[in-house]
Input
Amino acid sequence: MHVPMRTCVGCRHVRPQAELLRTRCQSGMPVPALRPTAPVSALGPTPSGPGPKDRIGRSAYLCPSRSCLVQAVRRGGFARTFQAGPVTADVDLLWAALSESVNRESDLMQRSGPGRVHRLQSLAAALNASGRGA
Ligand SMILES: [Zn+2]
Output
């Protein structure tokens, strides 16, 4: 079975897409994008549509690890991946948004596919463990 692989924008390791957190560019900032339709609230008001700097379809993938997020921000991994000009990223804000996004998604998915719930719970556990250690 073919497993889609993606490269982490932080550590540059290639991992199965399902083990990575997906982000996309919104108004020059990386935002959580577990699903294309997932609402984003943690970073302030959400514009009603894509802004001029947004490129639909450009996603950056990140290990569920705070150290990878720090590396991605410091090394410009998000800007390189999004190819949408300068990217502003605040490690603490984005980390909180990613954690909230995964936890909320996990709650929402409790009633639907157990496979997806398991994946999200694994991501949530990794995020929580990494957040404590950093
Ligand atoms: Zn990584």
